[in-house]
Amino acid sequence: MNQPTLNIENLQLGFKSHVGMSKVLHGISLNIRKGERVALVGESGSGKSVTARIILGLLQTLPTARISGVLEFEGRDLTKLSAKQRHALRGTEMSMIFQDPTSALNPVYTIAVQFTEVLRRRQPKLKKLLAFEQAAAALRQVAIDEPERVLNSYSFQLSGGMNQRVMIAMALINNPTLLIADEPGTALDVSVQAQTLDLMHKLVQEHQTSVLFISHNLGVVRDFADRVYVIYKGRIVEEGATQLLFSNPQHPYTQALMSAVPRITGGGIPNIPDVSDRYSDPAYIHPASGGEL
Amino acid sequence: MNKVILSLQNITKTFALGAHEVRAIDDVSLDIHRGECLAIVGESGSGKSTLANMILGIFEPTSGEILFNNSVLPAVRDLPLRRAIQLVQQNPLSSLNPRRKIAASLRLALDVHSIGDKNERQQKIGELLEEVGLTAEQQNRFPSALSGGQRQRVAIARALACQSELLVLDEPTSALDVLVQARVLNLLNELRAKRQLTYIFITHDLSVVRNIADRVAVFRHGKLVELNKVEKIFSSPDHAYTRGLIAAIPVVTQDEVLLRDSLGNDGSTGNHNLLGNKEETR
Ligand SMILES: Nc1ncnc2c1ncn2[C@@H]1O[C@H](COP(=O)(O)OP(=O)(O)OP(=O)(O)O)[C@@H](O)[C@H]1O
Ligand SMILES: Nc1ncnc2c1ncn2[C@@H]1O[C@H](COP(=O)(O)OP(=O)(O)OP(=O)(O)O)[C@@H](O)[C@H]1O
Ligand SMILES: [Mg+2]
Ligand SMILES: [Mg+2]
Questions:
Q1: Residues A173, A119 contacting (CB under 8 angstroms)
Q2: Are A89 and A57 in contact (CB under 8 A)?
Q3: Which of B91, B130, B178, B262 to mutate to test the interface with A (most CBs of A within 10 A)?
Q4: How far apart are CA A177 and CA A171, in angstroms?
Q5: How many CB pairs under 8 A join A and B?
Q6: Which numbered atom of ligand 2 lies nearest the CA of A158?
Q7: Which domains does chain A have, with CATH numbers?
Q8: Distance CA A237, CA A29 (A)
Q9: Between the CA atoms of A182, A184, A190 and A193, what dihedral angle is there, to the nearest 10 degrees?
């Protein structure tokens, strides 16, 4: 019964096109325990969002995608689920904060309508007025001080950070077992970001939610995650407990990433090559983390 | 040559929302100097993107005037003006035509503005996209087949291709890993020096601001609350809100923790230690 919430082994992904097959994931293995916050960081275009979409079962519907590998959610084999079963998981047991909130929200419906739909996935008979109240309360928790106005708006009438918080609130409201947060803080000012992360942190502890946290902001990752996977060109290159990995990065790519973070103490924009043969060195797995449960 | 390239004079922008009125920008005046990089930071929802949209002529201010090279910007802009001021939008997916391949999208921008020799355009585009780190194969894809950061780079390359004078960059590197971010920021710096470009750089990433901006404008509730040189902002900010922001920056080194704490420990709104005192264990 001590199975991880999410278990991925040797996940491979390719996209077929008229010029042939382009491989994107070259065998990713990753697991998340119950209540654990795991960060996935790395190169832009290395395969973070596609991994998230595969977990949610969204990429499987794309005719050009070729996917293989082990995918288990609470011991259930995700690859064996029907499209309908996958759909039932989304928004209830698994939820996702998408990278581009403005386009992930539907511009044709008000936020209230979309929120009600999400709430009714768990509470099918929920009355409109009650849904509005629950949604408003959830928005207040992510530092939105005029929830009524936001709920009555369309996404294009809201700022980038407001849309992002709407997505965050929607993703959290049904108490998912697994939360996938793809760049959840990019449009938030640092105070609101801290507040939002604090909320996520609290909910995770309360409900033992497992989190896959995708971010380019290493400072945020250092504060939020228990464990980190570093990905480069579709391969995991380093894995370890957050503290260990930040204090003692071992893989050349991780080391380069760490030294490329601009510092608030100044010193200019670092000039470190973003491509190098050494970034493809074999993976380094820090001891006393990962695998064992 | 005139030092002020863009002048915002008592700009206010309100949106009507049913019976409600949203005051997105509230009486903002600000001069932007030719060749500088001015960062705009502040609260989420404080009107930064609204301001960008007004500079681009996408929205009209409710009141106030915007002067570009000393003349008032008209509601309807001719081609040269549209070319002179370019925007990289906060959400790159919504600004790229989903039915057009990347290279074709950029090609169209050059065709519209008749930039460069017709036969060389294709090659120019290829070079620029390569400079932001996109391969020839990726250039022939539709936007939906790119990652978030790859799309963001396409938007930057398109703005740069237009050889404008003023670039408004709304969260231009938020979807990039720090290595690619460094590459793009270094390219932006290089081109700014070479072509005397002016940047308005809107971002929540204060670590980037520290290392790229000359001056910083801090917004809150639609108002400009502080405008200062970047060194001043990060050593002795005037406004308590700015201090609170700096105190909340997520950082990666101990030196930064020290700097942040020395600025934020006056009981202001900073809350960098919200996450259960993790800081002390490191
Ligand atoms: N539909 C598709 N067809 C072909 N290639 C695709 C498709 N979708 C994504 N890709 C490619 O797969 C790779 C991984 O994309 P993904 O979106 O997972 O990157 P990412 O790690 O999330 O990057 P970012 O940090 O920039 O968001 C990218 O190189 C992208 O160009
Ligand atoms: N078209 C619109 N109709 C109604 N209200 C709008 C519209 N556009 C923006 N607003 C409102 O104006 C305010 C400022 O929004 P804006 O997008 O400029 O903020 P921002 O500073 O860019 O925030 P963020 O950092 O979150 O991107 C918000 O309250 C927003 O809801
Ligand atoms: Mg992504
Ligand atoms: Mg904005």
A1: yes
A2: yes
A3: B178
A4: 11
A5: 210
A6: 31
A7: 1-93+178-187+210-293 (3.40.50.300)
A8: 11
A9: -130
Side chain identity at B131, as an amino acid letter? E
| Distance separating alpha carbons of residues B282 and B279, to the nearest angstrom | 6
Atom of ligand 1 nearest to the CA of B177: 25
Q: Which residues pair with residue B223 across a beta bridge?
A: B220
The beta-strand segments (E) located in chain A are 6-17, 20-32, 37-42, 65-73, 76-77, 94-97, 178-182, 210-214, 227-232, 235-241, 284-285
The helix or strand, by DSSP H or E, that contains position B168, with its residue range, turns out to be: strand B166-170
Nearest CA to ligand 2 atom 3: A157
For residue A201 the two structure tokens come to 């942190």
User: How confident is the prediction along chain A (293 residues), in pLDDT tens digits per residue?
Assistant: 478 999 999 999 999 988 889 999 999 999 999 999 999 999 999 999 999 999 999 999 999 999 999 999 999 999 999 989 999 999 889 999 998 887 789 999 999 999 999 999 999 999 999 999 999 999 999 999 999 999 999 999 999 999 999 999 999 999 999 999 999 988 899 999 999 899 889 988 999 999 999 999 999 999 999 999 999 999 999 999 999 999 999 999 999 999 999 999 999 999 998 889 999 999 999 987 544 44
Alpha helices in chain B (DSSP H): 48-55, 79-84, 92-95, 102-112, 118-131, 136-139, 148-161, 178-195, 206-212, 230-233, 240-247, 254-264
The one-letter code for the residue type at B108 is L
Contacts of A199 in chain B (CB under 8 A): none
pTM of the predicted model as reported, rounded to 2 decimal places: 0.92
Nearest by Cα to B280 from B262, B257, B263: B257
